[in-house]
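Input sequence (138 aa), recorded before submission:
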Amino acid sequence: MRAAVLGHVEWVEAVRVDRVPRSGEVVHGIDWWQGPGGAGAGAAVQLQKLTGDAIFYTAVGDDDLGLRARRELEAMDLELEASARAAPTRRALALIDADGERALTVVGERHHPQVNDPLRWDHLHGVDVAFLTAAFRC
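Predicted structure, token format:
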């Protein structure tokens, strides 16, 4: 089965905490990690794991985090079609509590692929399933 995802990616810094802080409160992180995330990236990575054949259409900022996101997604054997935007890559801070619940703060514009992006759109021919995670403008 061949899958395609059309959507967004952001650079996520995730922190595990006992609980999400209340207003004005400071909590200490137990563990932290970072990497590409967001609905589009998450769906693409999971579909790649399930099917062994997924392509992810997206857009990232033309900054170091955008380049890093590309590299890390490609390292997961994901076929990546990504346009660069003349803006920073969107960032997210995720706080994950002891119950696995998360609170997110996102900063920046959500980038997604557009029809006029110079991507290999012909690779969509023959996919068995397509998943969209962002609004598109034609």
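Checked by second reader. The radius of gyration is 16 Å.
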